[in-house]
Design goal:
The structure holds two protein chains of two kinds. Chain A has seven helices and no strands. By secondary structure, chain A is an all-alpha fold. By secondary structure, chain B is an all-alpha fold. At the A-B interface, α2, α3, α4, α5 and α6 of A face α2, α3, α5, α6 and α7 of B.
């Protein structure tokens, strides 16, 4: 009867899956804490080349994810939401954003021992002052957005 | 007896061969659920776009469309951090190698309990210049750098590398190189002297 915008059902499907994403986040948060990826000590151990734990975690994560990703894309599997699974390639360009941006993030990671996922996990684990760090990260992102037209990419 | 044994098992930290594959499965699960790529740093951009877009092009997009799932996912990480870091917290100090222990002790770290050293991560540190640099400065670099590089340790390190993308490899090499430099040369300045 009334004409509704064609996006409505898609948007509804998107909202229906939100609790599933929340549960996936809970699982990820448990992996980060029980797997000690949110541990400052574990990150320092890796970055000071004093132990192999983090490297073993990354290698085994990629050994599991890489063939699964490849199979999903190759076989054109559809997601539960109905769309074909595609990982869009990131534009390389001159590659400077990855080198410079990655290095700036690495400096912060090296002293704080925290990357964005662990920041949220540590907040949940009750390290209150992490809220200040998340707020600073928001400020950093905002300043990047503001300066973006002037930065090399 | 059996129940207490099981609880003891749940509180134990995971070995790498459990953590790594689980991480890979979370990344794969997000693709299967809704063709979403595991990543967390995008949330900083979504929150900026939601709260303070101003006239900045980088923040002018429909964040509810591309970012709502990711913000909900981040909310889940906070809840999961409570489960893994409080309810199932390990009673023992982190089992880093003896070498790492000695190395960090030589920098003045004396408390190895919990997920982060209490001496660095408490509200009082914000009253010192070094603590302020660590918390506020470190957080700023994380937000600026991940937005610049278009991803973090999960977006580039897991998703991008698992998909064999060259940009992600460049970013990950840069993370680790700069992270090692910061840990060796900046961290000692913030901890001692």
């Amino acid at each position: 009867m009334t004409t509704t915008a064609p996006v409505a059902p898609v948007a509804r499907a998107r909202e229906r899956l939100l609790p599933v994403y929340f549960l996936a986040g809970v699982l990820f948060g448990i992996v980060l804490t029980k797997g000690e990826l949110a541990s400052w000590f574990r990150i320092q151990e890796a970055l000071r080349f004093d132990g192999a734990y983090l490297y073993e975690v990354f290698a085994s994560a990629l050994a599991v994810a890489s063939p699964l990703f490849w199979t999903l894309e190759r076989r054109r599997v559809r997601s539960l939401a109905g769309e074909p699974i595609v990982i869009p390639p990131k534009a390389l360009g001159r590659g400077r954003r990855y080198l410079i941006g990655g290095a700036i993030f690495g400096l912060g990671w090296g002293v704080t021992g925290a990357c964005p996922g662990p920041l949220f996990a540590l907040l949940g684990a009750g390290v209150g002052v992490i809220a200040v760090m998340i707020f600073s990260a928001l400020a950093g992102t905002w300043v990047y957005g503001y300066l973006r037209p002037t930065l090399p990419h | 007896m059996q129940i207490s044994g099981m609880l003891e098992l749940l509180h134990r930290p995971w070995p790498w061969y459990v953590t790594g594959p689980f991480l890979g499965l979370v990344a794969t699960g997000l693709l299967v659920i809704g063709n979403k790529q595991l990543g967390v740093s995008g949330n900083f951009r979504h929150l900026c776009a939601a709260a303070l877009p101003r006239n900045v092009t980088f923040f002018k997009y429909d964040w509810t469309r591309s970012g709502l799932w990711n913000l909900v996912f981040a909310g889940g990480i906070v809840a999961g951090g409570f489960v893994g870091g409080v309810l199932l917290a390990s009673p023992e100090p982190v089992a880093i190698t003896a070498r790492a222990h000695a190395d960090l002790a030589s920098l003045g770290v004396h408390d190895f309990s919990g997920l982060v050293p209490h001496q660095l991560f408490h509200w009082g540190t914000l009253l010192t210049l070094k603590g302020w640099l660590l918390i506020v400065g470190g957080g700023f670099l994380i937000g600026f750098g991940t937005a610049y590089a278009g991803g973090c340790t999960s977006g580039h390190g897991i998703t991008g590398l698992a998909d064999l993308q060259l940009p992600s490899l460049i970013a990950v090499v840069a993370f680790f190189a700069a992270g090692a430099l910061a840990s060796h040369f900046l961290l000692p300045l913030l901890l001692t002297g």
